[in-house]
Amino acid sequence: MNYIDFWNKGRFEASRVLLTLFLVFSAYFVGSLFLSIDLAINHPNFTGLSDGSWKELSLLMGKNRLFLLMMLPFSLVFFTLLICLTKIHKLPLLSVFTSRKIFDWKRFFIAFTWWSFMVLAYTGIELLLHKNFQLVFNAQKFFTLFLLSIILLPLQTSSEELMFRGYILQGIKKRTGSILSSILISGLMFGMMHIANPEIAKIGYHILIYYIIVGVVLGAIAFYDSGLELSLGFHAANNLITALLITADWQAFQTDAIIVDSNPPGNGILPMLLALSMLSAFFLLLNKKYNWKVFTNLSIRNRNS
Question: What is the pTM of this model?
Answer without folding.
Answer: 0.90
